[in-house]
Amino acid sequence: MHDPTCGGDVRTLPCAPATRCAFPRHAGRRTGLRGLFILLFAATLPAQAETLARVASPGGTLSVTLESQHEGRLAYRVDRGSRPVIAPSRLGFLLGDGRLERNLELVGQSSRSFDETWEQPWGERRQVRNHYNELRASFAEKPHGGRDQGRRFDVVFRVYDDGIGFRYEFPRQPALDEVRIRQELTEFAVARPATAWWIPAFEWNREEYLYARTPLSEVGIAQTPITLRSDDGLHISIHEAALVDYAGMNLARGGDGVLRAALTPGNDHSAAVVRTAPFNTPWRTILVGGRAGDLAESSLMLNLNEPNRIGDVSWFKPAKYVGVWWSLHLDEETWGTGPRHGATTANTKRYIDFAAANGFRGVLVEGWNPGWDGDWFANGWNFDFTRPTADFDLEGLAAYGAERGVHLIGHHETACAVSHYERQLPAALDLYARNGVDVVKTGYVCDAGDIQRQDKAGGPVIREWHEGQWMSNHHVRVLEAAAKRHIAINSHEPIKGTGLHRTWPNWVSREGARGMEFNAWATPPNPPEHEANLVFTRMLAGPMDFTPGIVSLKGRGGQQIESTLAKQLALYVVIYSPIQMVADLPEHYAEHPDAFQFIKDVAVDWEESHVLAGEVGDHVTFARKVRGGDEWFLGSVTDEEARIVEVPLSFLDPGRRYRAEIYRDGDRAHWKTAPFEFVRETREVRSSDRYTLKLAAGGGQAIRFVPVD
Ligand code: NOJ
Ligand code: CA
User: Which amino acid residue places its CA nearest to atom 11 of ligand 1?
Assistant: First the structure.
């Protein structure tokens, strides 16, 4: 039975008497009260599950119910209409001085609505609507077991039509000053059997694993975002937003579809997080959509972050870049000095000329500084970020680039000697700022758990995790130092993305997944389904510096890349980043002038973005409109299956005619047997047309739509 007044299920949420199904205690802000339902119940229900409060999304699609369970434990659940999405799931903490999860009493609640549209300085869409209903529930611990400390915290839920976020907020209070969080007891009890796409947590190669597709019941300890498709067809992604001064959340499988928070440890393993009240945890997020594409179109993670804190960032220019990079991964040139050193003045000039000739703004140069000789993986303490090697004329090259409209892109590989890097950071960034370097790629290459922290020079070196509390703060320190100098950051081997690029819009991209480099040297390389997995998993955490465009389709020693040529072009539209590498060698682009034309033309900053079609791990098609322009771009990729995907062109402006510049797989194309079978053709289209994409096995298609009237 379903009660429309409350949008709930009468069996578990007895809200039939309409008078009980009401309404915020405090007036909502901006949108008023429409669509906001809060239930407050007297303690009339059986002791094991008493409904405390409920809040629905603005359009009524999703609702969250907060319950008190046996012994005063808290639980929340999420429903989509009458369909349970998250069954009652526990909330609470394991603290240094005991569990904070029982004998919790609701001592106050309030609610509000919020509706605002804000503008991104760069991104997948210019305008972002932030529209939610919020419930704040305040809890105090009742005296129990000899404890009468009355510890207090709030749980805040923000409920959107496409998902929810919730976090814990600890107010200032006498009973809790320093809070040592050993573990969060937050659970996500997925209500239906589901298929999961996930990568393991706590493995040595950090986030660089292929996505496994398993039943939810076979997930081990997963990183977030984790993506699920329930047996009744819902798409769900669990992740977090605004991870600042806190440990990253992983998810460990419990019984019966339950995923439990598993925080990344701190250095002494006695607490994952140490904070002083008042403080908030990051938001725990659950996206829920009917289509896979709903997940990729959501702005919920960004909305749950604080607004821009660094002011005007018009100095950051979304752009494409080339670099002394693929040659290093092919082992044709070296990071270290010597006869094959890549970062020489002459070689970098060649790349600057190539960039200038083709309209690319950036030139990345890796291996430009002392410290790469020998086993750099093991000797991050040798890196000097404040001066170039003798064969690299940084100032001369910066000036040479400036005359041609080209900027060097900086590189700070730390090899995880992070404190050593932090000590040099001001001088290192000053050096770059003086030379017009306004994007820096950072790197944290080492095994997971091996970040080296040394609080005082000469003091003991202690080990941290890439996703622990200390590194969450390290990244903010880098962002702030860089922002002061108008420098943007692209972190490799990073902490996961949680939407902080809203607050620090100079955090423009990151790695945090298996990128193109694996096709240079990994056996096996990335499989054809990899990018159709990434879009619906890793990419939900924000931009990725995937480094597409390997038109030679070859890695080290001629190893074949499992892609067609057309798919390499489609990746520029499919894998979003405001800085996109044109990653192959200049001489390889010279061999493929037709394909190269698309790479020159494709935009990197967007007015709007839409997923026209897609299934997790199978295929995906995006349409994106150029920021500040009239052109549209379409990118479509498939996995190892050839497919025909029909899409409406209704995203185009009605009444206009467009020249579609099509870059597609040839009729006989196949990633393995005929990867270079490729067709470039044009035709005229309009918004009322439907378009049929023919994708080869391991293939793709890229289209530029230019208005012709
Ligand atoms: C790993 C990065 O992902 C890659 O792009 C870089 O070239 C190496 N580290 C060296 O810093
Ligand atoms: Ca990497």
Answer: 413
User: For the chain, how long is the longest CA-to-CA vector?
Assistant: 82
DSSP 8-state code for residue 282 = P
335 Cα nearest atom in ligand 1: 10
Q: In which band, very low, low, confident or very high, does the pLDDT at 113 lie, cut at 50, 70 and 90?
A: very high
Model confidence at 269, pLDDT cuts 50, 70, 90, reads confident
Concerning whether 517 is annotated as a catalytic residue, the answer is yes
Q: Answer yes or no: is the C-beta of 517 below 6 A from any ligand 1 atom.
A: yes
Catalytic residue among 517, 529, 531, 677: 517
CA–CA separation, 370 vs 384, rounded Å? 5
Measured in Å, residue 179 CA sits from the centre of ligand 2 at 34
Q: Is the CB of 336 under 6 A from ligand 1?
A: no
| 558 in Cβ contact with 326 (< 8 Å) | no
End-to-end distance of the chain based on CA atoms, in angstroms?
56
Beta carbon of 562 within 6 Å of any ligand 1 atom: no
The rounded distance, in Å, linking the Cα atoms of 678 and 565 is 7
Q: How confident is the model at residue 177 (pLDDT cuts 50, 70, 90)?
A: confident
CA pair distance 450, 444, nearest whole angstrom: 10
The whole-angstrom separation of Cα 27 and Cα 660 is: 51
Examine residue 524 and say whether the peptide bond preceding it is cis (omega within 30 degrees of 0): yes
Q: What is the pTM of this model?
A: 0.93
Tell me the C-alpha distance between 594 and 617, whole Å: 29
Is the CB of residue 415 less than 8 Å from the CB of residue 376?
yes
Residues listed for the chain: 709
**Ligand 1, from 208, 328, 333, 366: best to mutate by most atoms within 8 Å of Cβ?**
366
Atom of ligand 1 nearest to the CA of 328: 7
> Cα(694)–Cα(679) distance, rounded to whole angstroms?
12
Helix (H) / strand (E) containing 240 = strand 235-241
Rg (CA), the chain: 26
pLDDT at position 150? 87
Q: Are 106 and 118 in contact (CB under 8 A)?
A: no
Q: Which two tokens mark 183?
A: 């573990």
Tokens of 93: 């903490």
Decide: 316 and 122 in contact? Cβ < 8 Å.
Answer: yes
Distance (Å) from CA 441 to ligand 2 centroid: 11
Distance from the alpha carbon of residue 511 to the mean position of ligand 2, in angstroms: 7
SS3 content of the chain, % helix, strand, coil (to 5): 20, 35, 45
Amino acid identity of residue 550, one-letter, is I
Angle at 212 between CA 475 and CA 444, to 5 degrees: 25
Q: How far, in Å, is the centroid of ligand 1 from the Cα of 522?
A: 14
Residues 6 or more apart in contact with residue 699 via CB below 8 angstroms: 563, 564, 566, 567, 637, 638, 642, 665, 669, 670, 671
What is the CB neighbour count within 10 angstroms for residue 92?
Answer: 22
Strands (E), 49-126: 49-56, 62-69, 73-80, 83-91, 93-95, 98-100, 104-119
Q: How far apart are CA 373 and CA 382, in angstroms?
A: 9
